[in-house]
Specification:
The structure is a single chain. By secondary structure, the chain is α/β, with parallel strands linked by helices. The protein folds into 2 domains: 254 residues, Aldolase class I (TIM Barrel, Alpha-Beta Barrel); 76 residues, Arc Repressor Mutant, subunit A (Orthogonal Bundle), CATH 1.10.10. Helices cover 36% and strands 23% of the residues. The strands form 4 sheets. The protein has a 9-stranded mixed beta sheet, with helices on both faces. A 3-stranded antiparallel beta sheet has the order 12-13-14, with no helix packed on it. Strand 16 and strand 17 form a beta hairpin. Helix 1 runs parallel beside helix 2. The chain starts with 8 loop residues before the first strand and ends in a 5-residue tail after the last helix.
Length: 381
Amino acid sequence: MNQSLLLPLSLYIHFPWCIQKCPYCDFNSHAVKAGIPEQAYIDALLADLRVDLALVTPSRPIQSIFMGGGTPSLFSPQAIQRLLLGIQEQVLLTPDCEITLEANPGTFESAKFKAFRQLGINRLSIGIQSFNDPHLKKLGRVHSAAEALKAVAIAQQAGFDNLNLDLMFGLPDQTSEQALFDVQTAIDLNPTHISFYQLTLEPNTYFHRFPPKLPEDDTIFAIQKNCQQRLAAHGYQQYEISAYAQQGKQARHNLNYWQFGDYLGIGAGAHGKISQALPEKIIRTIKPKSPEQYLKQAKAKHQTIAIEQLPLEFVMNHLRLKTGFNLADYVAVTGLGVESLEPALTECLQQGLLVKNQQQISCSEKGWDFLDVVLEKFIVL
């Protein structure tokens, strides 16, 4: 049997519209100007999926769906219903398929989110970022702290008992006390999952062109460590660089990315990764970024991952996880021998950046703090 058939298969769906573009955002998102072409976009998504499904074995079911953006919750429940029904007409979903919808507090209406839950969406991810109004304003967010709290209440009342809250730290003029307040406020809301990640000034963003004054590196590091301790003390275990979950509530969709599983990516600017024959043919699909071009069903790009790049591709994802990876899994998932990880693996072990427990490879605490240094050693020039 082709080992690629044993990999989980997920589906990512990109919705490229937002109420407005945040100054730190480098995702493929566009401010709504003249309304959203809902029906045309759903048509394009379903046509896109039909093309991508020709790349995979028909018997492979979808184990998770993630609707991201942009702001997918700007779409109506009727449009999302037509999308989900159209997906199920084309491909089998596992009985316990995790279906996540991203939402921003500025788009919450009680009836709308009850409808989303009734459609079978069983996980919600809310882009809070902060519970501090001045910080939200500096981040260009359209909601207030009060609206963020109301959004969580609406989600829980709608029946969403698997809930992620996004928080950022290292914000302009943020103190350690303010960051801890954000984290404690999120904890008190009892979500199953908290994403807690540092604000970075990404290329091609407003903040990159006009950088705000951020806290000193030592302050940011102290914020991170203090907040991680607070999360752990309340049962939120870090399992990935920026992901903290209650017991058994890790994001299955994102775990599939980090474990180098396969995923279809549909929507403007979406990426996918499909293993067809290991190691000779692992391909990435890249869809047109422009919503206008995507609606015209412009052709996607296909790129085959070069065999010499597979070690980096694999460890770059797996080493984001606290558990790291098993050498036997590396062989099964990439089709390469363990020797293909050398000499980088031995060098990282000798320098104490990685640790080995039988066949399990993971970052040490030192390696976790300097993951970029670890990954650089696996780059093939």
